[in-house]
Design goal:
Radius of gyration: 29 Å
Strand content: under 5%
Number of domains: 2
Largest sheet: none
Helix content: over 70%
C-alpha cells in the first residue's frame, strides 16, 4: 500500500502542480487527472470513466477569489485509487469524491490564504533588492512547498485511510450501497445543472433541447451529439461571416457612392467653366 500511496501522491503533484508551472494548462481537470491515474495504476478504462464522470460533476464549480467550492484533483485521484486498488464500486467512489473535494478545497484555501501569505514579506524584500535570480528561486520554492503538501495529504489519505475505507465499504449494507450508487449516478446531472444555470439564455435554449432530444429519444451516443454540435457551430460561423461581409459591403457602398458623386460634380463644374470661357 506504500507504493500505491506514493503513486497517488505523484499523480496529484504532476496534475495539480504542473497545471500552474507553465501557466494554467488545464491538466488539473478531472478528465485528464483520471487518465493519468488510470495510466499509473494500470487501468486506463476505469481512470477515464472516473475522470469523465467527475468532470461532469465539477465542471460547474466556479472559484471566486480565494473561495473554492471544491478541489477536483485530490478528489479524482483518491476516487480513482479507491476504485482501482480497493475495487470500490465506481458510483460509490463518485459519491465519496464529492466530500473529499470539498475537504480538499478547505485545505487549498488555508494554503493560499494563510500559509503562502507568510512568504509575502520575503517576496517584497527580495523584489526591493532587485534580485531576479533569488526571486525566481523563491517563486518555484513556494510552488514546490504548496503542491508537495497537497501530495502529502493524498499520500497520508491513501496510506492511512485505505484500510478504514475498505472496512467502511465492506460494512456498508447493500441497501445503503445501492443508495450511494444511485447518488453517484445523479451527481453528473447536478454538475450539468449548475453549469446550465450559469449559461442559460433564450438564445441557447434551442440547442439544449436539441441535445436532449438527440440523447433521450433518438438514443445517440455522446460522440454523435458532439459531432452534431460541431456541425451546428460550423454552419453558424459561416452564416455570421456572410452577415458580416454584407454589413461591411453596405458600409463601403455609401463611401464609394460619395466619391463617385464627388467626381461627377467636379466634372460638371469643369464643363460649366469651359462653357463660360468659350
Amino acid at each position: 500500500m506504500l507504493g500505491t500511496a506514493i503513486l497517488a501522491a505523484l499523480c496529484v503533484f504532476i496534475c495539480f502542480g504542473g497545471n500552474w508551472l507553465w501557466g494554467q494548462t488545464m491538466i488539473e481537470r478531472p478528465l485528464v487527472v483520471g487518465l493519468v491515474a488510470g495510466l499509473v495504476f494500470g487501468d486506463v478504462r476505469t481512470g477515464v470513466m472516473m475522470g469523465a464522470s467527475l468532470e461532469a460533476i465539477f465542471m460547474g464549480a466556479v472559484d471566486i477569489g480565494g473561495a473554492l467550492s471544491a478541489e477536483p484533483v485530490t478528489a479524482t485521484v483518491l476516487a480513482t485509487t479507491f476504485a482501482i486498488t480497493l475495487n470500490v464500486d465506481e458510483k460509490a467512489a463518485l459519491a465519496l469524491a464529492v466530500p473529499i473535494g470539498v475537504f480538499a478545497a478547505f485545505i487549498s484555501m488555508f494554503m493560499k490564504n494563510v500559509v503562502m501569505n507568510i512568504f509575502a514579506p520575503l517576496v517584497d524584500k527580495v523584489a526591493e533588492k532587485d534580485n531576479p535570480r533569488q526571486l525566481t528561486w523563491l517563486h518555484f520554492g513556494m510552488w514546490f512547498v504548496n503542491y508537495f503538501i497537497f501530495s502529502l495529504v493524498t499520500f497520508i489519505s491513501v496510506l492511512a485511510g485505505a484500510k478504514p475505507v475498505q472496512q467502511m465499504v465492506s460494512a456498508i449494507p447493500k441497501n445503503l450501497m445501492a443508495g450511494l450508487s444511485a447518488t453517484g449516478g445523479l451527481l453528473p446531472a447536478v454538475g450539468f445543472a449548475i453549469l446550465m444555470r450559469m449559461l442559460w439564455s433564450k438564445q441557447l435554449s434551442p440547442y439544449y433541447f436539441l441535445g436532449f432530444i438527440l440523447t433521450a429519444y433518438m438514443k445517440l451516443p455522446s460522440v454523435a451529439v458532439a459531432a452534431v454540435g460541431i456541425i451546428i457551430v460550423a454552419l453558424q460561423w459561416m452564416r455570421d461571416k456572410q452577415l458580416l461581409d454584407i454589413e461591411n459591403a453596405q458600409k463601403k457602398a455609401p463611401t464609394a457612392a460619395a466619391v463617385t458623386n464627388g467626381q461627377d460634380g467636379a466634372s460638371a463644374n469643369e464643363q460649366e467653366e469651359e462653357d463660360f470661357f468659350s
